[in-house]
Target: Catalase
Amino acid sequence: MAHDQQKNDLTDSEENILTNRQGHLISDNQNTRTVGERGPTVLENYNFLEKITHFDRERIPERVVHARGAGAHGYFEAYGTIGDERASKYTRAKLFQEKGKITPTFVRFSTVTHGGNSPETLRDPRGFAIKFYTEDGNWDLVGNNLKIFFIRDPIKFPDLIHAFKPDPVTNRQDPNHIFDFISLTPEATHMITWLFSPWGIPASYRFMEGAGVNTYKMVNDDGVAHLVKYLFLPKQGLKFLTQAQAEEIQAKNFNHATQDLYEAIERGDYPEWEFCVQIMSDDEHPELDFDPLDPTKIWPAEQFPVLPVGRLVLDKNPRDYFAEVEQAAFGTGVLVDGLDFSDDKLLQGRTFSYSDTQRYRVGANYLQLPINKPKTRVATNQHGGQMDFVDGDKGSENPHINYEPSSIDGLKEAPKSRKDYTPHVEGQVMRKKISRTNDYQQAGDRYRSFEKWERDDLILNLVTQLKKCNPDIQERMIGHFTEADPEYGERVRSGLA
Model:
């Protein structure tokens, strides 16, 4: 009764004020706390951590996102160079150093929004996640096929996915929700332009690009870092589906991409990608009209050339889908020596969230599963938890000692042989978006770069969905498209008339 009275005492406007689950008012739900506007993020992001850890646990046991997937084993073969330079100029990571060096890999492709048995013809970004089993332990690179993302701050990720997921009451995906969120998130204009073009439905996993999306760093022997973007270019070529083509396939086969990947490998037609990077000096680059750490942006190839570093080949299908594809667990924090993080806010949020999700979804000991276990020696004092099956062998000379430091034959720290990378960080801790947002330039560039049939398909797909949306949402979206390119906005407006 007291609770009901308290609720009745609230005005309509107060009832709509956002709080966290502790009842604390949320005055900024757009930006994480960072050192300066560009980051890095700080650990005391309580509202973000509460929000993302709850989001990570919203589904049991299927992945909240990327539930629909296919995978295959393969290898990475290094060229020993990055463009025309020795790889060692930029990174000391061992897998890149020698020409012809082979590193085993496992790749999982996926769609993002829909469930584990959903059609693979749906318009959705495609996940492109690679596990490199290097001699220094695992390196995971987790990205997508469209090179960019909808948002730049991780605190918005649960909201983004909720807008794209089915309505919690009707259990149906609702364009009104999708475009309501997008229309209030200007930085998403670039990604929407990609997604609603034919690029939004790859013909199959073999015929799409891959990208790390976030900005990372490479570090060399001298502890000098460079900013880096990772790209995978399919040697089979690029192929897409129009909406009509996708619907025709979906009427007969909702597993077409999984089937295509499996059958290609079985007949020896091994998919292959050129693994490339873009390199940039490790500074703020004030000469650019965008922030190089912004995951809603592409680095222009004419300014930052796409440099080949090796090739990725898939040549073996899984023997058991569940054990290998479903239980495969990736994380953006899984890096090896010579590779590092940038201050990209979205990357830092993903780095916490991904591993937290895997511990929840698969279990605390998910790294003991064969598909996730490194192919090099593991020696750790971590033990126990559900499904611990290492049989007490932690790699120590004395199994009684599960702590460090110890003088009784316990595990010891590895000697340092190379210079640490020690970036300088200084600034006020704040919640603030970056200054160089430039939300429309690259969206307009992308629209103008499309061929006529791609622009026509983009407009058709957008208009078809926006007709289901409220008039105010339509107007906001037209405004964003017009800012990107006047013709772009006018064609959408005319289609809705």
Observations:
- The mean pLDDT is 91.
